[in-house]
Amino acid sequence: MKRRLISFKFIMTIAIIEILCYMAVDMYLASMTDIAAFFETPYSKVQLSLTFYLFAMGVGQLFFGPIIDYFGRKIPLILGTSLYALCSFAITTSSNIELFLLYRIIQGLGVALIYICLISMVRDVSKGKVAAKIFAILITIGAITPILAPAIGGYIDQVFGWKAVFYVLFILAILVLILSLFILPETLKDEKKVIINFKNIFIIYFNIIKNMNFLIPAFATCLMYMFIFGYISGASYSYKEIYNLDSKTFGLVFGATGSALLFGALLSTKLLQIVNMKQISIFGAAIIIFGSVVSFISSNISVVGLDGIVIGFFISFFGLGLAEASLFAIAMSSQKTSVGATAALLGSLQLLLPATATLVAGYLVEISIFYWLGLLFILSILAFIFTCKVFRIEKTQF
Predict the structure, then answer these.
(1) Which runs of consecutive H residues, i.e. helices, occur in 238-338?
(2) What is the pTM of this model?
(3) To bridge 173 with a disulfide, which of 85, 90, 231, 258 should be the other Cys (CB 3.0-4.6 Å)?
């Protein structure tokens, strides 16, 4: 049954939906100054839309996780995609920044529902190395799309204006809705459904999070996501304000960095056939540290400067691509029941903590680029430490 469900169409549809989810994260990044001018509000207030969106995604998953363990995956996925589409259109009708932020929050909740349905579907039909390979694709998309999307959004904004970015998201959401209806099956079997009892939700989450086989790899991946979103938050200011890149070049730099993560994740799927998850994860985490050191040192050498910083991030993101999928699969495989709640908790942690990183990184980079790069170096060290700790407590085949 599981092999029949894991088809090429299934994986591709899941991947396309995840692309849609993460395009909304920051596809409008290059448009933020235009949005601020449109609403006659400070840039910092527009930037809150990214933080609020991530918080909404994180908190929403905690609420929706137990629900999809009862109602299944497909119907909630359709509802979440519909909400995404409606909010994408509603954002273009906003008359003030407050409405803009409100629609972003609701959009984040819709994406939260979509995301946990996707992760739970994968876990329903796969486990072990098979799950790790699929998660490698999804994690790569989840990390690379927020880096590539601003480049795409920048071109759209330059030609058609900032509202066109959200019109594109609306159209894509409608297309994804049609794909979901006709291609994706319901993957949750009736015998595995869990009766909803909201009084027990926190007990369920507590039981999951107290399991060290879940908590340690989950926190390791959270630190890696903090690195990614810390980079996104600080790069916009540092590249454009400190190194004076224009919007087009800025987008190209984002794209180049994101491609490294893709290469790392693709290589990890091949390496999983010949080496174990421990070797890939620790090696990838070590590469993240090396890249962050290169970036930090380059920022102190005027001759190297921006080129060295970009090269350092390219190296770090390659390491991220190698390490994340295995850690993600280990965390998800720690639970045999309440898979939706597990996916919700893991996804929530991977958004709430990075949301705080966007605030800290954005604050530090305005003070000094050295503080920003120093923060990312600390995050890389912590990610390596927790990755090593994963395999000290892991007692399974991983």
Answers:
(1) 247-271, 277-299, 305-332
(2) 0.75
(3) 85
